[in-house]
Amino acid sequence: MAKKVKYFYNSNTLSYEKVDLNWKKKTGRVLGYLATASIFSAILLSIAYNVLDSPNEKELKKQIEELTVQYDILQKRAKQMDVVLNDLQERDNDIYRIIFEAEPISAKERSIGFNGVERYKALEKSNYSSLMIQSTRKLDMLAKKLYIQSKSYDFLTREVKNKDRLLASIPAIQPISNKDLTRMASGFGYRIHPIYKTRKLHAGMDFTSPVGTEIYATGDGIVSESGTERGYGNRVEINHGYGYTTLYGHMSKIKVWTGQRIKRGEVIGFVGSTGASTGPHCHYEVHKNGKPINPINFYFNDLSPAEYAKMLELSSRINQSFD
């Protein structure tokens, strides 16, 4: 095969002349081709590296997408669990513990132990340390809240078993039977003292009745004090447990002794006018956790709705107390 001969048109001579390439020109053309090819190759490789994914990269990205979806699902579930748990905590404090006369668990008690950072030190070396620490802390908080709530329900379960004892212990009747009452002389609140003529808190209720009328324990308990003092005269105090105590004053005679176990409705003494009193009556107080509360709220075993309404009206009148 004959070698191809190349010609070019020479405008000066107005004729075609043979192209004669020496080795320098040939080498230059080859190097130019190689340089152009290298540049285009570099551009194509750069595009492929930055834009197009390798099979391995595609697989890794797919795994990351799947893990991200699973992580989002777990986060939503953790949030739902936290909402449910908060609802259980509110029910525990605002309903169940009120029913059983128990102190609510404070927010501080429920969250104690979450302030330390040392327990998450090992996770700081991870490439996703912030994400890992955040998720681990959230799970730890849920676990601690669940543990505290579980213990609370254990406590409430025991209280349910003791419910009969609780109901028997809470003061729930009048210290004087309705048939023996002359009148309800004075109720809970600020009244004029009959002797000192000053306005002071009357911490109980006065039930007027003839001397010798029986006085009843208003709930099960143990006699914590039985004796005489200047103000209340012959008096009896009963500790009913669950934070409740009751006091009965101005007795003509005491029938029980300190340390004696008492049942609701049992006679503990008799109406009198001993101590700082202006007439025969039973002064009666109810205390919860050491503070006097209105006894009118504790006659649900004794009075009909009509009788309770009448008692409430009489006890609310601003008058002079008997002691």
UniProtKB/TrEMBL annotation:
User: Which positions, given as ranges, span the membrane?
Assistant: 30-52
Instruction: List the InterPro entries hit by this protein, alphabetically.
Output: Cell_wall_metabolism_enzyme, Dup_hybrid_motif, M23ase_b-sheet_dom
- M23ase beta-sheet core domain boundaries: 201-295
MF terms from GO for this chain are:
metalloendopeptidase activity
Residue ranges of coiled coil: 57-91
Q: Which Gene3D superfamilies match?
A: Glucose Permease (Domain IIA)
Q: Which residues form the signal peptide?
A: none
Keyword tags:
Coiled coil, Membrane, Transmembrane, Transmembrane helix
Tell me what this protein is called: Peptidase family M23
